[in-house]
């Protein structure tokens, strides 16, 4: 009888995602040794938010956590098609672990559904809603400020505070994202995060221009 090693799914998913972020860094910058790994910071934040939303909404925690770990595993390699590629990846990868087989389809569906910064029509499956909301919450508020700033500064291109502020304030899609939130906790948090986001950049701009000198 052959011994079969059962791989703990959570550790394996984390490892696969981390390896994908290192491949992205190498592809973007020619090295893995940069000052800030944006993709890894984003994904770990989404995992935290997805688990919290699952707790608040009653969504299946294992499904949303696995989907959160793997939702961007094909982001760099497949670009706009990464939700579909990520879903296929999950279907192939999770059966090699101890993840519950009956939940794999739900994980893949949630990953496939997470595309878009806003939605014209809401998603209908709770686990897909939770992943979508968690992914977009990580792109709103002070979390986004530090993630995007860290990611920008990790590259070789020179940036100024003026340029970073301009880029941040040009994100006119943010209100659409807030309006597209599915779950009540995410909607409330998104509104608060967007207000904090705008307040921070407005205060920073005042400092840099001396408008706070009265």
UniProtKB/TrEMBL annotation:
Signal peptide: none annotated. Residues 39-138 form the HD domain. It holds the Pfam family HD. This is HD domain-containing protein. It comes from Candidatus Promineifilum breve. The lineage of its organism: Bacteria, Bacillati, Chloroflexota, Ardenticatenia, Candidatus Promineifilales.
């Amino acid at each position: 009888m052959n011994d079969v090693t059962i791989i703990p799914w959570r550790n394996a998913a984390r490892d696969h995602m981390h390896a994908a972020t290192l491949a992205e860094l190498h592809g973007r910058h020619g090295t893995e040794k940069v000052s800030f790994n944006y993709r890894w910071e984003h994904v770990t934040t989404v995992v935290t938010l997805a688990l919290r939303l699952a707790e608040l909404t009653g969504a299946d925690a294992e499904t949303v956590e696995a989907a959160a770990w793997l939702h961007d595993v094909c982001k760099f390699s497949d670009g706009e098609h990464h939700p579909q590629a990520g879903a296929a990846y999950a279907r192939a990868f999770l059966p090699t672990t101890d993840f519950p087989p009956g939940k794999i389809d739900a994980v893949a569906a949630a990953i496939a559904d997470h595309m878009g910064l806003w939605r014209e029509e809401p998603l209908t499956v709770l686990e897909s809603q939770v992943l979508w909301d968690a992914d977009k919450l990580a792109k709103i508020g002070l979390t986004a400020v530090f993630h995007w700033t860290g990611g920008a500064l990790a590259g070789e291109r020179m940036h100024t505070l003026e340029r970073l502020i301009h880029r941040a304030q040009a994100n006119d899609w943010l209100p659409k994202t807030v309006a597209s939130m599915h779950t009540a906790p995410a909607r409330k948090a998104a509104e608060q995060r967007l207000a904090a986001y705008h307040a921070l950049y407005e205060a920073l701009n005042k400092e840099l221009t001396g408008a706070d000198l009265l």
